[in-house]
Predict the structure.
Amino acid sequence: VVSPQPVARFELVNHHEQPVSDADFRGRFLLVYFGFTHCRVVCPRALTTLSQALDLLGEGSEAITALYVSTDPERDTPSVMRDYLAAGHPRFTGLTGTHEQVESAKASFRVFAERRADPLDPDGYSVPHTGIAYLMAPDGSYLTHFMDGTAPEQIAERILANLSQVESSA
Amino acid sequence: MTTLLGPAATPDLSWVNDAPGVDDLQAGSLRHLLNKAHQLPGDWSGMDSAAGQLQADGIQGLRYQLSYMFYALSVTHVHRLPAASGMFRSALDALMQKMLRPDVWIYWRDASTGGAGLVPDPGPALPSEWDPVGRDNIMYSAYVQSMAVLFHHLFDDDTYAQPGALTFEYRSAYWRGQGSASYDERRLTEHLYWMMVEKGYLGIACEPDCVFLICNQPLILGLRMHDLVYGGDRASEVSAGWLRAWEEFGGILDPELLAQGQVRFKALALEKERVPLYIPTATWDFWLATLLHMWCPELVEEHYPVLMRQWSRPGPEGTRWISTEAPPPEAAMFMGGGAGAALGLGWAALCASEVGDEEALRELLGYADQHLHATWEGGGLYHRRHDETFDEDGVFRAMDPMTGNVLLPFARLNVPGGLRRLYDGAGKDLAKQPTISAASEGVDLRRAWFDQQRQALAVTLGSNGSGSSTLTIDRWTDRGQPQVWVDGADATVTVGVDGDLLVVAVDHSGPPTNVVLQW
């Protein structure tokens, strides 16, 4: 039976070239965004917004691991992701993997991403993708998501509400 | 039972006649929809077409007749007879139960294997599936989902939110065929919402690889109902995403025709090939326009006049009909009507009613009532199936079950923006108002309206139900005992209390009789 909601289930490689799976993050809240480092507009804007939201949470963000999962594993090697995130979005850990691993992670999170010809891209293609950030519970289940365009203050407020709810029911 | 009040000196009740209700023809259309809803389970009489696609995936299929009856009755309840919840609740529940029957969805076992005629290279057959809402098949799943949550919205009734309330089960004693899948309205909503996300909002396919624009609109309605019941804003998110995805796909209109001042909507996208296709018929254009009007009225109203002008043909005595331009052969299978289909006229009439084009609506219904086999049966008015498209004089005479049973009654009962206002949340407070929860058999109910300003429930009984009519009124106790008046020649009323219910017995004859209960 397909889970109607996204679930954090993956086996990938982090930007330190270490294999990781969802099991490695059990006990942590996850803020997960799928994208690709050649993305010209959507990803930089989203990662900036999400980083601002985490900044607003202050100490509250310590319970959260922010993950940026590549939808373009062909170009997004661990080192490419490490350099990209270190330069602009250091709160995020990059995850990539084989094509199959990425497809499996996409299916678990129910993400759309599809390679298309793009004459503006130096390599001739881009990977339009779902503009959604997922907040996942420490057990890997889905809590909520934030659409692109949501203000950082609103994201921070909703993250805090979800953290409080999960912690109070624990 | 305790008698509360008999007839008293009657104040001016003329305001009652200005309240919404149904006239003779509308009452006939409503009765026909109720009659169809209450046919015995498995009795699909009067619903099959010349194309013989009753239980298949064509557009005369059961799921479309049932779901649009459901929408028609919902719109009628909200806008015309909002204080008659009992009658509508039982009919909508009956339609929902029919919708879950395997007769309605069993086609998916075969259709899930793919190979639609519109797909140039369908590849090898996909696995046959028993779960009719698991993947693709939005032409069924979105209707089930929207009906379930609309029911919840209208009646504040979580029947279909219970675990397993939406179960699809088939077991044969004669061969190895069996399947079962279990959902409830929230689980199904989540599933369809995330499937839409996975598809980049372009839409979920009907038959594999075929993403029709039309069948993704009921999902948007269903998400909106979900937002109204449970909170959230998924309908806005998905509708905006859908428009954006189609803009990236070249828009939803044929750009070349648009440049020539004509209007044609795209019908579908081939998902794998990423190619848009057209099915250039009035049916496809008016069907999509009707549904888009729910959440995107400006776009529809901008293009509707051209659309109606393109397809309209003048009929005798100030009537009009709709051109029956044949679809290309590869698309004909999706039409499902074959010879005798009047779907273009049916969808045009419904679209006219939705955008508020009273002239076109009057002329189309006029043509149908004069030339397309209008029939009274069991107190209901419908248009009987007729398999010849034109008669010997070249007059369009066709009628099919979807049009005759559903679309023309829907068009007659709809109000301008009826679907749009439903989408916007109309009906959300109905479950808090005094309502007729039951009525004796044969009651000819023409009006059931709770006037907030007057705190009065206005009921009009038509002459077809002359004699004794008994109405049971619920949700009144916190308002105290009402004053009761009857306004009709030789009519008398007796009101009693039976537990939490008011029982109103009216003896009446002749012209319509108004009964008013005022708190």
Q: What stands out?
A: The longest strand of chain A covers residues 29-35.
